[in-house]
Structure to design on (344 residues):
């Protein structure tokens, strides 16, 4: 396996800078998610690592060796594309063994490696089938087996689960993580799905307009984001703005919100960290807002509230009764440690 280092890499297409001086390290054997909205540069960065594009500036190393100008076929990269890119006229076994045949392996060795790859993705009995005879999840597994059968140093995944329905996508998340841990390969995947990134990744890099906004473990990025963009993009977040003080933010109505940071003009509070309509513990932050609606989604319900002319949200248990009509004033409380200071 191999560590991947991207150092000050930029890529332009005409007058558009798709990747702007990005520096990232993808740890050997880690599962790293590249997350961002459309046009953020995440797929371009993946293609630069793969060798489908060459950077205009910066350095790119795989396993300690510079590869910025080395073509894709010499990088020992395995890649799974969004549409799987399986050959329709080949069987599952032939699809998986295609790279082995190109590499010049003999029939016996190919059969052995194909059988091992099929077992790894739990498709031992599907080698003779054609892609059109498979479900979406099975085609995704075939594409994954084809990507890893040649023993690549790095596995790249370009939104590999986006074509699957919700239940199958969740099942394949578990399978992807199992396979990655079993073979221990350095894995980098692109997604626009925040939940998927949080579920799969050891670390996440959030991109915006070609720039790296934040990078770190998913738990840290979710619970302690340092920027407004990361807080709002990686899940729902209520942003409060006011006058900065040391460890406190004063809102326009005089309410003081305490937090554990320095003097910042913004703080974020996740909806699930807000307690609604109960007597809060001493020292908690308290605001008053007016209920505008309730959205039931099963295990939870999202409350929409008006606070000083803008909407904020709070999450309660779906079974929790709410004896308030729209327009009712509610007390919202949240702990200072859940009041996260943000850079402007």
């Amino acid at each position: 396996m191999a560590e991947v280092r991207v150092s000050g890499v930029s890529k332009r297409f005409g007058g558009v800078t798709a990747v702007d001086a990005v520096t990232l390290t993808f740890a050997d054997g880690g599962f790293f998610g590249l997350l961002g909205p459309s046009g953020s540069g995440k797929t371009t960065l993946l293609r630069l690592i793969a060798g489908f594009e060459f950077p205009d500036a910066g350095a790119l190393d795989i396993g300690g060796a510079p590869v910025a100008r080395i073509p894709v076929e010499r990088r020992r990269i395995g890649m799974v594309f969004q549409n799987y890119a399986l050959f329709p006229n080949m069987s599952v076994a032939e699809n998986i063994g295609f790279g082995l045949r190109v590499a010049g392996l003999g029939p016996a060795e190919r059969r052995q490696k194909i059988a091992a790859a099929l077992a790894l993705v739990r498709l031992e009995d599907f080698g003779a089938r054609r892609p059109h005879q498979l479900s979406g999840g099975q085609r995704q597994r075939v594409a994954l087996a084809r990507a890893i059968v040649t023993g690549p140093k790095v596995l790249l995944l370009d939104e590999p689960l986006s074509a699957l329905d919700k239940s199958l996508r969740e099942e394949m998340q578990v399978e992807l993580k199992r396979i990655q841990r079993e073979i221990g390969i350095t894995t980098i995947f692109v997604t626009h799905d925040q939940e998927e990134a949080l579920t799969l990744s050891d670390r996440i890099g959030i991109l915006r307009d070609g720039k790296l906004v934040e990078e770190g473990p998913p738990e840290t990025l979710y619970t302690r984001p340092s920027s407004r963009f990361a807080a709002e993009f990686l899940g729902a977040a209520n942003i409060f703005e006011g006058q900065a003080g040391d460890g406190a933010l004063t809102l326009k109505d005089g309410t003081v919100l305490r937090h554990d940071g320095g003097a910042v003009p913004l703080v974020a509070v996740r909806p699930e960290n807000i307690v609604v309509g109960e007597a809060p513990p001493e020292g908690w932050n308290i605001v008053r807002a007016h209920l505008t609606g309730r959205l039931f989604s099963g295990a939870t319900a999202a409350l929409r509230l008006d606070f000083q002319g803008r909407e904020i949200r709070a999450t309660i248990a779906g079974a929790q009764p709410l004896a308030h009509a729209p327009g009712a004033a509610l007390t919202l409380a949240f702990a200072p440690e859940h009041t996260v200071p943000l850079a402007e």
Observations:
- The first strand starts at residue 4 and ends at 13.
- The chain has a mean pLDDT of 92.
- The longest helix spans residues 166-183.
